[in-house]
Specification:
mainly alpha; 0% strand; 84% helix
Amino acid sequence: MNTKSKTISYWVSTGLLSLMMLFAGYSYLMAPESVEGFRKIGFPDFFRIELAIAKIIGVAALLLPIPQRIKEWAYAGFGITFISAFITHLSVGDPIGKAFAPVVAFAILAASYLTRETI
């Protein structure tokens, strides 16, 4: 992959991932459906708020010019979140489409990570 293609792939995947995580963070804080979804799963309300804040901070870590080590922690955190979400959705009997949404997010995360520019 040439440099230009790699840069475009990075920004498309990172931009899409960032929009998804910002929307999720906002939704976790503001949408009654998200509150009910977390209750249905059995998670405490503080976890919903904590996860929303973590997603917003993770997006900032990916987009801001900060050390790569911090960005790698954001990638790891998102990866753990997506894997955990997949397992959670399967364990509570959610429809397969809903359960595989985190797998799609993980694939976008992997594309962003694999095409990132290291300094």
